[in-house]
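Sequence, please.
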């Protein structure tokens, strides 16, 4: 095994989920053994599809995918499939293998130690927090000890400690790894190459260097190409002006004019395609429910979960109109459980103002009906609002007509996130509950989302482990479950 050996190669690979709507077009790239590669691209561009092609879950429409002989591959998925949520820990890991693995429990304990998670073998998967499920997903790939490790948004739901633990692991990882992520700081700590999936050309651009190196290289290239095109346009324009001048002359001058026009056309063809930036969502406003006031949310008692033990603690939290509460604490301490209690308004120690409309961004999107189309989902959120309003909101979140007819289960996780935000805009809630709202979201959208939340005039409770995002948002009070 040599470092420069190519273990994976895509040769003119094309793929589409629907006939006539290509997702990938003649994609070319290769991956060397022991490299650590990032796949970048817009939500829905096809990054997870690349992983599905590598693992042979799907087949390309055309082109070749060459994988080194006897190369073992394992993938850490973005989310745990719903059909696996009712499994216990032991059953969950047993499903990672095609054949029965005897004496698997010591292997599970070892891999859980690597991802820094304590978990009894009989604990049901759906009872873990989002951050703990993220660690389970990573462990499910690591337990297979693959030659090629595929990580799909591995930092989603992870707290600061979890991200630091994962970063250290990847820096020291001695095999090949390909990562999909929108976390720039995380990626820059270990990446030595980038595959950029361009949503416009449907092709892969391959770069060498870490994440920041590639960003700088792309910016330099864009500037260089822009200058070149400006010079070409100027030169072509001069020739067109000469053509117009000589075309009105008689005799041989018309021949000269024809030559000038032909030269201008040749020069125009030398223009280079400038790499376009990903599309970003439009600025949006989440209008608050009308005629709300007074105390909207009161919390007097919270449940704290530490090392599988639950305890109660008295607190005094009051959230009124135009007040934003940040809920803090490490993975597994009970943040999402508290948010669920608020949404259901069934727990002792939780007061929610009567008749308040709650808008809920749930980190696993399980409050959406996965069998509904996007159009039906948005229609339910819109209520009696006109269809044009619905479609304008959808377009602002990059939801086109093709996506409108797709079922929620067919969307990428990032697209589900954008649909969830579109629902919040249409619902106009008085109390906004946000559980990790930047998970899976393209980093270009995040400043726009932060601006919208800053302007929200209702009551808001937010959980986020992304400090750069929280720094952009107005926070009026903090409830730290750890302290």
């Amino acid at each position: 095994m040599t470092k420069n050996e190519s273990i994976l190669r895509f040769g003119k690979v094309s793929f589409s989920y629907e006939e006539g709507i290509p997702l990938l077009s003649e994609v070319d790239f290769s991956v060397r053994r022991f490299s650590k590669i990032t796949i970048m691209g817009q939500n829905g561009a096809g990054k997870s599809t690349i992983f599905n092609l590598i693992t042979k879950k799907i087949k390309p429409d055309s082109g070749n995918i060459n994988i080194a002989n006897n190369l073992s591959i394992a993938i850490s998925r973005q989310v745990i499939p719903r059909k696996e949520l009712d499994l216990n820990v032991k059953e969950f890991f047993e499903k990672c293998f095609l054949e029965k693995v005897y004496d698997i429990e010591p292997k599970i304990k070892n891999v859980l130690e690597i991802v820094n998670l304590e978990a009894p073998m009989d604990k049901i998967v759906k009872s873990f927090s989002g951050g703990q499920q993220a660690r389970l997903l990573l462990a499910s790939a690591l337990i297979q000890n693959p030659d090629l490790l595929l990580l799909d948004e591995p930092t989603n739901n992870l707290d600061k400690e979890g991200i630091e633990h994962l970063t250290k692991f990847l820096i020291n990882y001695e095999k090949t790894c390909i990562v999909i992520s929108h976390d720039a700081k995380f990626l820059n700590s270990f990446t030595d190459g980038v595959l950029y999936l361009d949503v416009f050309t449907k092709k892969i651009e391959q770069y060498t260097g870490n994440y920041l190196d590639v960003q700088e290289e792309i910016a330099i290239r864009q500037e260089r190409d822009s200058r070149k095109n400006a010079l070409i346009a100027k030169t072509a324009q001069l020739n067109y002006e000469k053509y117009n001048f000589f075309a009105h002359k008689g005799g041989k001058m018309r021949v000269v004019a024809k030559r000038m026009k032909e030269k201008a056309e040749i020069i125009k063809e030398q223009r280079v395609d400038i790499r376009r930036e990903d599309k970003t969502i439009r600025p949006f406003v989440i209008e608050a429910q009308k005629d709300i006031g007074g105390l909207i949310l009161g919390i007097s008692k919270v449940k704290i979960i530490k090392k599988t033990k639950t305890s109660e603690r008295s607190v005094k939290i009051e959230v009124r109109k135009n007040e934003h509460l940040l809920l803090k604490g490490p993975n597994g301490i009970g943040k999402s459980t508290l948010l669920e209690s608020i949404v259901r308004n069934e727990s002792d120690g939780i007061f929610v103002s009567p008749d308040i409309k709650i808008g809920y961004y749930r980190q696993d999107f399980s409050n959406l009906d996965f069998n509904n189309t996007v159009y039906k989902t948005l229609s339910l959120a819109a209520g009696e609002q006109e269809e044009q309003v619905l479609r304008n909101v959808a377009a602002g979140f990059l939801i086109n007509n093709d996506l409108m007819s797709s079922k929620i289960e067919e969307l990428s996780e990032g697209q589900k996130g954008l649909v969830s935000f579109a629902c919040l805009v249409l619902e106009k809630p008085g109390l906004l509950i946000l559980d990790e709202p930047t998970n899976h979201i393209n980093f270009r959208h995040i400043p726009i989302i932060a601006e919208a939340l800053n302007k929200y005039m209702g009551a808001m409770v937010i959980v986020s482990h992304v400090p750069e995002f929280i720094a952009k948002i107005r926070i009026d009070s903090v409830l730290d479950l750890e302290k």
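The chain has a mean pLDDT of 86.
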